[in-house]
Amino acid sequence: MSFSATAKAEVCRTNTGKECCEMAELSALIHTAGSISISGGAFSLRVDTENAAVARRVFALIKSLYGVQADTQRHTNQMKHNHIYSLSVDKAVARMMAIDAHILSDEGLEFGGDSSFLTSRCCRIAFVRGAFLGGGSITNPEKRYHLEFVCGQKEFAQGLLNIIVELGVTAKMILRGKNHVVYIKEGDAIVTLLTMMGAHTSILNIENIRILKSVRNNVNRKVNCETGNLSKTVNASVRQQESIEYIRTHMGLDKLSPALKQVAEARISYPEATLEELASLLGAESKSGINHKLRKLNSIAEHLKKTRGE
Ligand SMILES: [Zn+2]
Hints:
This protein is an alpha+beta fold. It folds into two domains: about 5-200, Homing endonucleases (Endonuclease I-creI), CATH 3.10.28.10; about 230-305, no CATH class. It is built from eleven helices and ten strands. The protein has helices spanning about 5-10, 20-35, 50-65, 90-100, 120-135, 155-165, 185-195, 200-250, 260-270, 275-280, 285-305, and strands spanning about 35-40, 40-50, 70-75, 80-90, 105, 110, 135-140, 145-150, 170-175, 180-185. A four-stranded antiparallel sheet has the order 1-2-4-3. The protein has a four-stranded antiparallel sheet with strand order 7-8-10-9. A two-stranded antiparallel sheet has the order 5-6. The protein is rod-shaped. It starts with a helix and ends with a helix. The relative contact order is 0.09. Zinc ion binds near residues 18, 20, 21, 123 and 126.
């Protein structure tokens, strides 16, 4: 099962809540997954979904709110190798549902411009839940963080965006083909929204992936950092070797103090050794002692160069 389908199945296992919330959720489901047709004055309403858990959820919501069993049909989609579940109710109930869902008013059909019926926070969350079940999807967070709601009507998309933003989640909207897409691209925002909708296991999965990602980033950073230090060591060592060779050629290492000569010879013998490694090679020497002597060798070479007019 895709990450999306798993998250939806999980959201479907949450309690439908109070009647106000059930209506809010069903309204968003109808807006995102429903279709309405009016022919010869007969009104019909159908909800289509590829997700069996969502189909059961719609069935349960209709039963709880209207006390009827929706007619449920399963079609096989040969092209996409999946099933489509279609739920419909008789025309009297369909009409009532459309009015309650704020799709049908005295002025005719409307598409979600009006969200004033979502008075409480619980209903607004239920509305977002319904929109997610009907038109939402979430990308596998191992690839990238992306949760979106595909909406056919601009008014509905705008209303949904406002509700999500009011709930404190950063979201945006774009036009894709003829659909209006409300989307969230930030890991924290996706986790917040899934938490509100009750997809707790999916959140744990996202959090695990986030931890893995951050561990991976830290490891990369550490490797880069160590590579940086290594090249610093190598550069410093090259300069020290040049200084020592210059001293050997123009002055002779024997003219150095025994301690300096010892460090100079160790550096030439172990060009890749770090200060710590040189210190331990030379026994009693401390890292800062070695560092001091290598600097001294550099400055002797500089001085020699100057006196030779180079
Ligand atoms: Zn409510």
